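Section 3.1 - Work completed
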Amino acid sequence: MQAVRLQKNMSNILQNIAIIIASLTAVYGIISWRREHIGKRKIDLAEEVLCSIYELKDVIRSIRNPFGYVGEGSTRKRAEYELKEESSILDSAYVVYERYDKHKDVFNNFYKMKYRYMANFGKNSDEPFKIINRVINEIFSAAHMLGKVYWKNQGRKPMSDEEFEKHIDEMQKLEKVFWEINENDDVNKRIDTAIHICEEICKSANNLGLWNFIKKYR
């Protein structure tokens, strides 16, 4: 009788152990799945942002292309008493706005990932987004100043030698932002910095496996 009771107790103990093991296995499986799922989400997001910023570099280069096309700038709304010569100058400056508008979806898609990116990779990971935004704002600012002031006044407004020298110097600085002078100009270097920061964040954000995956599919 005692042997039967002992056997029954042992059976219950073994059954409980089996239940505990099964439970631990299930919990471990859930944790592993969650870790894998979160890791995949991070990988997908990191890859998407990288692809987007590489595309943006090409888009910004096309916006700053110094070669114009017939009809570019013509969508600008003209003032009532605008002279033909003035219209031509303002249209030339307006080109960057038209080109930007053609690729507006690319920029919007990039910017909308900012807060999700920060949530996954830390609040300081927004620097690439800030750089791109500053670059675009500076291009627009240069377009405005060139069209409204510098190109408009060039050869038309009386200036002293000192004023003319200052005018040319400031105009050329703006033109270096407005147009792509070469592949390694200051604007392109800043975009490359944004790309590099993004890559470094991706490398350190999770683990080497994440970065290896991204490099594989770049």
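Second construct:
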Amino acid sequence: GVRVDSAVYHGYSIPPFYDSLVGKLIVHGKTRGECLMRLKRVLDEFVIDGIETTLPLFRALVREKDVIDGDYHIHWLEEFLAGGGMKG
């Protein structure tokens, strides 16, 4: 239920003006709950060295009640970040 798509490999040098999408993490399952459980685990175990990533953001998001419940809207992330959602 977990797949990683990327062209980056150990020793690869990412140019200074790289596309921010250097890889995709895809999680699937039979239910939303199963997917969220897998996603939490894989995000906690996922390691990327050498560049800044959005892993801390996604680790926080997958634990937010609104995300877990599917109760979000187009401005939700902006409001979450403005409200200090990453501080806790």
